[in-house]
Write a structure and sequence with these properties.
The complex is a heterodimer of chains A (113) and B (113).
Chain A lengths: L3 E4 L2 E5 L4 E7 L7 E6 L6 E6 L5 E4 L2 E6 L4 E6 L8 E7 L9 E2 L3 E6 L1
Parallel strand pairs in A: 2-11
Antiparallel strand pairs in A: 1-3, 3-8, 4-5, 4-9, 6-7, 7-8, 9-10, 9-11
Chain B lengths: L3 E4 L2 E4 L5 E7 L5 E8 L3 E10 L2 E4 L7 E3 L5 E6 L8 E8 L8 E2 L3 E5 L1
Parallel strand pairs in B: 2-11
Antiparallel strand pairs in B: 1-3, 3-8, 4-5, 4-9, 5-6, 7-8, 9-10, 9-11
Classes of the chains: A mainly beta (113), B mainly beta (113).
Amino acid sequence: QQQVKQSPQSLIVQKGGISIINCAYENTAFDYFPWYQQFPGKGPALLIAIRPDVSEKKEGRFTISFNKSAKQFSLHIMDSQPGDSATYFCAASYSGGYQKVTFGTGTKLQVIP
Amino acid sequence: NAGVTQTPKFRVLKTGQSMTLLCAQDMNHEYMYWYRQDPGMGLRLIHYSVGEGTTAKGEVPDGYNVSRLKKQNFLLGLESAAPSQTSVYFCASSSRASNTEAFFGQGTRLTVV
């Protein structure tokens, strides 16, 4: 049972372009939506996160857009750079006695010069 | 500050052999997790722990056992390795207080032949 669906599986963007990765979730109890960035040979690391009480969060070139009614959220990378080439995972979790994060299947982004 | 450290980084096992993966964190986190990462399937939770001496099953626990005898360590055991357990394994930890970011180790690449 996949609770977080992510697309596309891979993405090629030219340097300076906008990269967009989409995710959809099913469980309305989720209240925390992080994005993780993973470089080859490394573990995932938190990139940016949003809670459902806001529709957008921006940190530098990275923006999360959140649509609570549609149960969708997306990551936008503005002015994409070759150094952004990595695998991106969306995720969702809910507050409670413990944290258990459900991850999407990942998007491999390649930014070409 | 080491964060989350996994050992070993690489291992090749023969079918039926056993091994233990060690995860150590120095952030005094209450929660620890073991994930496996397979192409196109994202990160899937194997087992997790909400505190010393407690463990619980995740999404894909079959064929694995875990122990958390000390707060800083979380061990993942394979009693009789199978080729289907060929994967990259990640350990992660998070604070109960923040209930937000999970910190990952660099992964263990395991091949079962």
